[in-house]
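User: For a benchmark we're assembling, each entry needs the component sequences followed by a predicted structure for the full assembly. Here are entry 17's components. Please fill in the structure.
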Amino acid sequence: MTVLFYLSASVAVLATLLFVVASNTVHALLNLIVSFVAIALILLLLGAPFAAALEIIIYAGAIMVLFVFVIMMLHMGPTSVDQERRRLGFRIWWGPAVLALILVAEVGFLIVTGGVTAESGPRPVGPKEVGLVLLGPYVLGVELASILLLPGILGAYYLGRRRREGP
Amino acid sequence: MKALPFIVLLLGSLLTISALLIWVERRLLGQWQERYGPNRVGPGGILQTAADVIKLLTKEDWIPPFADKTVFILAPAVVVSAVLLSFAVVPFGPSLVVADLNIGILFLLAVSSLSAYSIVLAGWASNSKYALIGGLRGAAQMFSYEVYMGLSLMGVVMLAGSFRLRDIVEAQQNLWFCIPQLLGVGIFFIAALAETHRLPFDIPEAEAELVAGYHTEYSGMKFGLFFLGEYLGIVLMSSLIVILFFGGWQGPWLPPLVWFGTKTVVVMMLFLLMRATFPRPRFDQLIAFGWTIMLPATLINLLVTAAVILMNRHDVS
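Assistant: Structure for entry 17:
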């Protein structure tokens, strides 16, 4: 189990790294999809099959298809690849890289000193339990999310409405 | 590793069945259109697909120089592996299942949503106009139809009280779910047609307007993989319809696998008949149909099912 975890975790990290540095947008998105699948695998290993399935259905299956769709519509050619490559110069990425390195060092320190303790042997959580919790103690959060989605739908409808004559 | 021989057998029979399905479809289409169809290779033409595969394998493996090579090669592999992966949770009999997951339906939805990428990526990587339009159409169709494909299954999940496919079959001991979920089975069948890109939902291919849509630039066995993926998809969707709505392997007298096979073949023939019957709608009609008719119908089905279940429960109230 531990081997599987580290395997999928390293796939996730590597894919995310490739996602950040890729200059071709579609290749970058493909790497991000791989990283989502790896994260879903980690969730599965942690005993959360429901969350793993949702991770793939929502992130890899729906949101990323939307991203790929938009990028296909924009039709990025070789010019945009060149542009992206020039933009990814040293001056741009050293700042975030240093910030990320600080976080990595922090995590490393915590691991070495044994500050990170996951609950030993997590119990598998079935879909039923997740549903009961979501509609029980966390119902307010679910309702807030649906309120957030409603303006999104209305906004999309407003932007996409058919205009009458005139400007 | 007790499951390994079963998996190998399953893969082998799935590939054989989908190859046979191609021949059956071409013969039946021929009969319905008052011509013969392929009847030369082997008895009744049954070896036609084998001849086609040999032809595809010996053809030149051509990748257009303007294509994005990596993604171009990746795209056809995605669809076949996604569909084959889905079969892992399909129960063919009381104990004939590779992985009996407690999130079986969600796993199926997740993996089948990944197969959408093969069309989108093939369209993009080909770097040609027709393929790109096909890919865009495929993506838009997937959005519209996956929403209510998932929702139409929730009625079944509510009735069975489980995401596990074996529990769902066992819950249909007394009554097949196609009776209480009459609307659900209709909606799921239409969504399954859209998911497998069969007529009248083969908008991403649309030979009449887009040459061959997303696989215009493909040739040889890469094209063959798209073809295989489509027919494996039909087998998958037919077995799902049987499992979710028509009692799976259950039936009197005959052994479970025979029942399952018979029911699945009937549904597969229905898929083929749809192709011979319906004209292809316009693209905007298809999307509008999805959002304005199918989605409200699915939601109503869901509401009514939930209300009826709550009304019949005596432990609450």
